[in-house]
């Protein structure tokens, strides 16, 4: 397989994901969590099976089409599964430990990446590529079984609360035009998320090469470990960040703070020779707090009935932003061969582009705070403060469970 074909396998995952998540979010709102959990986890199993099967056609013209089809199915299923996962989490943890629940999901997803990083290569060396790919399929089957278990728990819980019928009634009313009714705070959150991730994901993708090109004395493996520190920190910190944010609230303030504290990361990388591990750990910290404050804010400003659509749209905008950012970075770095050393001035331009995205993130998140303040400070309310005000100790987030329940949040 040529490098272009190999990269195409990644590109098809990212771009189908960006398109499919909008439709998937809408379908989940319309047809329910159980439909989404079943269909999308089944798609990941099918996708990974087709991909693994494709590897048996090495040297034949079927190899690439089969692998691309596998990635397409897997990408569509996996991205959509994240939406239904967020929707279920938001339903069960709204007004409680929402940020902790999101943080834990993020930690587990990072644990998957870290385990993959440490073990897949060794597994492949011992058992060969085909068994490794079928091993991946087996993991997707385990995911499918877990998804079915969640589905059953969700159904039982809904029945116990007597909400099953109500939610189904609300789902029937969901229309694609509801996108127009998503509030300004939602769109500002989407921009905040997009600009933040425009800096993080493309940087991590290229960080290992950057470290080898700019700093002396780093082997390929050492550079990869240092780049991986961004995700390692998030594996360790995401749950703690969630607990803190659940306790103090101030999600909008955290969003601005994380963006502002990310500026020195890219500045250090662009203009100094401070060891890169300082920057990658630092970025890991701001990234963990940003993810634990930004994503769980979405369920607080949109009704549960349209949450799937809202999450799908946010993910799609994020993926398109990151995809474009990758293209700009590729253009700025300007080389097709991973062997050649890229001149430092090009890396500096890339970091300046990351800085520009971070500044845009600060502008979007400051605007978010201004609008949130005018609309009742749902995002910045502190849990303790709100409980004291009501004198009942009940959850702070007056979140709209169903459409039209609150004036500001739902419209
Ligand atoms: C929580 C957040 N999730 C995402 O950004 C997803 N839309 C895409 C994840 C792709 C990971 N390679 C995150 O991971 O920070």
TrEMBL record:
Name of protein: Lysosomal dipeptide transporter MFSD1
GO molecular function: transmembrane transporter activity
Gene Ontology CC terms, in alphabetical order: membrane
Residue span of region Disordered: 382-411
Ranges for domain Major facilitator superfamily (MFS) profile: 1-375
Subunit note: Homodimer. Interacts with lysosomal protein GLMP (via lumenal domain); the interaction starts while both proteins are still in the endoplasmic reticulum and is required for stabilization of MFSD1 in lysosomes but has no direct effect on its targeting to lysosomes or transporter activity.
Annotated catalysed reactions: L-arginyl-L-alpha-amino acid(out) = L-arginyl-L-alpha-amino acid(in); L-arginyl-glycine(out) = L-arginyl-glycine(in); L-lysyl-L-alanine(out) = L-lysyl-L-alanine(in); L-histidyl-L-alpha-amino acid(out) = L-histidyl-L-alpha-amino acid(in)
A Pfam family annotated for this UniProt entry: MFS_1
Membrane topology value: Multi-pass membrane protein
Keywords tagged on the record: Membrane, Transmembrane, Transmembrane helix
Localization per record: Membrane
Known role: Lysosomal dipeptide uniporter that selectively exports lysine, arginine or histidine-containing dipeptides with a net positive charge from the lysosome lumen into the cytosol. Could play a role in a specific type of protein O-glycosylation indirectly regulating macrophages migration and tissue invasion. Also essential for liver homeostasis.
């Amino acid at each position: 397989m040529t490098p272009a074909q190999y990269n195409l396998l990644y590109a098809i995952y990212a771009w189908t994901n960006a398109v499919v998540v909008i439709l998937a979010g809408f379908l989940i709102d319309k047809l329910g969590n159980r439909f989404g959990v079943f269909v999308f986890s089944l798609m990941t199993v099918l996708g990974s099976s087709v991909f693994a099967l494709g590897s048996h056609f090495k040297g034949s013209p079927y190899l690439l089409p089969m692998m691309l089809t596998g990635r397409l199915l897997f990408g569509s299923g996996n991205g959509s599964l994240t939406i239904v996962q967020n929707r279920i989490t938001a339903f069960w943890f709204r007004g409680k430990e929402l940020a902790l629940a999101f943080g834990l999901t993020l930690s587990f997803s990072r644990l998957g990446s870290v385990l993959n990083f440490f073990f897949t290569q060794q597994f492949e060396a011992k058992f060969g590529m085909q068994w490794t790919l079928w091993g991946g399929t087996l993991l997707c089957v385990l995911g499918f079984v877990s998804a079915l278990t969640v589905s059953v728990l969700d159904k039982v819980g809904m029945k116990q609360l007597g909400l099953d019928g109500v939610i189904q009634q609300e789902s029937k009313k969901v229309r694609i035009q509801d996108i127009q009714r998503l509030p300004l705070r939602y769109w500002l959150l989407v921009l905040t998320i997009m600009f933040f991730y425009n800096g993080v994901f493309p940087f991590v993708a290229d960080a290992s090469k950057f470290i080898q090109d700019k700093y002396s004395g780093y082997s390929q493996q050492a550079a990869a470990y240092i780049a991986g520190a961004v995700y390692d920190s998030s594996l360790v910190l995401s749950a703690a960040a969630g607990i803190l944010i659940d306790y103090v609230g101030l999600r909008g303030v955290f969003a601005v703070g994380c963006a502002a504290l990310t500026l020195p990361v890219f500045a250090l990388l662009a203009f100094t020779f401070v060891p890169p591990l300082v920057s990658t750990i630092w970025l890991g910290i701001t990234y963990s707090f940003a993810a634990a404050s930004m994503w769980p804010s979405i369920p607080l400003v949109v009704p549960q009935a349209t949450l799937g659509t809202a999450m799908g749209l946010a993910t799609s905008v994020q993926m398109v932003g990151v995809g474009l950012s990758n293209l700009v970075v590729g253009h700025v770095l300007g080389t097709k061969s991973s062997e050649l050393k890229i001149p430092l001035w090009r890396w500096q331009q890339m970091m300046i582009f990351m800085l520009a995205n971070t500044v845009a993130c600060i502008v979007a998140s400051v605007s978010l705070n201004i609008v949130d303040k005018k609309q009742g400070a749902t995002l910045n309310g502190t849990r303790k403060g709100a409980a004291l005000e009501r004198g009942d100790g009940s959850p702070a987030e007056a979140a709209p469970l169903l459409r039209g329940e609150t004036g500001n949040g739902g419209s």
